[in-house]
Amino acid sequence: MLRSPICEILGIEKPVFQGGMAWIADASLAAAVSEAGGLGIIAAMNANADWLREQIHELRTKTTKPFGVNVMLMSPFADEVARVVVEEKVPVVVTGAGNPTKYMKDWVAAGIKVIPVCASVGLARMVERAGACAVVAEGGESGGHVGEATTMALVPQVVDAVKIPVIAAGGIADGRGVAAAFMLGAQGVQVGTRFLVATECTVSEEYKERVLKAKDISTIVTGRSTGHAVRCLKTPFTNAFARRENEGAPVEELEQMGAGALRKAAKDGNYEEGSFMCGQIAGLVHERQSAAEIVNDLVDGAEQLLKGAAAWVA
């Protein structure tokens, strides 16, 4: 079985994290991934403390296995969400969209395993000093908010820069991606896009169909001029956003355009006005499966490839 030190650190069976996708990664999906032996993650997104607490309670009716909460640091509710994860004794906190050191002292003191998502070596070093037990090195191939460096370039540099385990994210959808991540020095992977079509994922039917129909050139990155680059599927909304961005529209106008667009896609299935955040790897996602089938396929595929790797060495 494919195992690494991160499995022992977190008490999970398989080194697969499910991405904390806003409006998508809820108790249903997270519980299913945790039950499958990976690390299911609830996305706190822009929700308040009450919503998150309800999701945590719901998840605990479905599984007793370790899980995590993704705290989006840009959220206006970040402070109260940071307190809820302590009060609810959440085993793992994954952070995104910012620097989490403001909260890490309290989280670490409460016994929470803190694993920030990092798009640069500098941030990875900073959070290691603040007490992170691991980091997610996320390349720009991923869906949602992205950095500049690719997974292939970023992961080995982060591995060389820190002593804690590194989880690779961005552009991973099958056993080949998992095996490649381990060869780069990662001890696990975080996967988002493939879980969009999981049976237990409650995202809109339109969203799932769009992912299944995606090709290698189906995504676009917008928002670089605002400082918040986001990768999504190409849709009427993203085309209009990109056009106004290229025309030099002010940041305020672009932010207004993007407000609520992800929810329109994830919950309403609104193709015309929705933002269907999705990674470049969507072209490899061809079928609906349960979360357990996805986790097992990722791990089993990587095992077979890694066992056969010696065939390339004379």
Notes on the structure:
The protein has helices spanning 5-10, 27-35, 49-62, 78-87, 101-109, 121-129, 151-161, 175-183, 205-213, 236-246, 251-258, 261-266, 291-307, and strands at 16-18, 40-43, 67-72, 92-96, 113-118, 135-138, 144-145, 166-169, 188-191, 219-222, 230-233. An eight-stranded parallel sheet has the order 1-9-8-6-5-4-3-2. The protein folds into two domains: 5-200 and 285-304, Aldolase class I (TIM Barrel); 219-277, no CATH class. The protein has 13 helices and eleven strands. The two termini are 26 Å apart. The chain is an alpha/beta fold. The protein is globular and about 50 Å long. The relative contact order is 0.14.
Concise description?
The chain folds into two domains: 5-200 and 285-304, Alpha-Beta Barrel (TIM Barrel); 219-277, no CATH class. It has 13 helices and eleven strands. The protein has helices at 5-10, 27-35, 49-62, 78-87, 101-109, 121-129, 151-161, 175-183, 205-213, 236-246, 251-258, 261-266, 291-307, and strands spanning 16-18, 40-43, 67-72, 92-96, 113-118, 135-138, 144-145, 166-169, 188-191, 219-222, 230-233.
